[in-house]
Specification:
Residues 1-44, 188-217 are annotated as: Disordered. By secondary structure, the chain is α+β, with helices and mostly antiparallel strands. The protein is built from three helices and six strands, in the order H-H-E-E-E-E-E-E-H. The strands form two sheets. It has a three-stranded antiparallel beta sheet with strand order 1-4-5.
């Protein structure tokens, strides 16, 4: 029989140079790794969610910036187009304004029967070109006087008018679209003072005659 030496106990084999802690079972290390793994995954997920939120926020900001720039560009385009049209209208109006005296001469020549031959052809061509550029003539005898489009150069009274009326067109007016470049220069006539009262009395007398006169008591 083998005698056991008192005071000594059997211990697991430990590699040379290893510390006593290295002698603990490997199962403990594996269990600790399994316990720490879920915590690490949770932290990584939280970090990814935070990064995603930041990316979405940055995308929203860039989208808002793009929409703002697009709106500003559209406003700029509309403003440029509006200015371009305004400049064109002003240039056309200035050109046609310079031609108005020539058109007045053509009108007077037509009234006196002097618009004949080659002069007539040139005059009509000029009037056609002016009309294509949007020039419109206005002003007729007998129309009511409108101070926004008429300029009264002569004034008189007439018994046969019921309101201030253009009785003669001294110079026609011209407009381009809704823009008046020269008012029509006219002679106007107003109702004769007292004429309205006389006409009213005559109208009442006519009504009485048609009804057989006033009733007798």
């Amino acid at each position: 029989m083998t005698e056991e030496t008192p005071g000594f106990e059997e211990k697991p084999d430990v590699p040379s140079g290893a510390t006593p802690e290295d002698a603990e079972p490997k199962a403990d290390s594996a269990a600790a790794a399994e316990e720490s793994a879920p915590a690490g995954d949770t932290n990584q997920t939280a970090a990814l969610v935070a990064q995603l939120d930041q990316a979405r926020k940055a995308l929203d900001e860039r989208t808002a910036d793009l929409q703002r720039l697009q709106a500003e560009f559209q406003n700029y385009r509309r403003r440029v187009e509006r200015d371009r049209i305004a400049v064109k209208e002003i240039a056309v109006a200035n050109l046609l304004t310079e031609l108005l005296p020539v058109l007045d001469d053509i009108g007077r020549a037509r009234e006196h029967g002097e618009l004949v031959g080659g002069f007539k052809s040139v005059a009509e061509s000029l009037e056609t070109v002016a009309a294509k550029m949007g020039l419109q003539q206005f002003g007729k005898e007998g129309e009511p006087f409108d101070p926004t489009i008429h300029e009264a150069l002569m004034h008189s009274y007439a018994p046969d008018v019921t309101e201030t009326t253009c009785v003669a067109i001294l110079q026609p007016g011209y407009r381009i679209g809704e823009r008046t470049i020269r008012p029509a220069r006219v002679a106007v006539a107003e109702p004769q003072p007292g004429a309205q009262a006389v006409k009213a009395d005559e109208a009442e007398a006519g009504d009485d005659k048609e009804s057989g006169g006033p009733d007798e008591g």
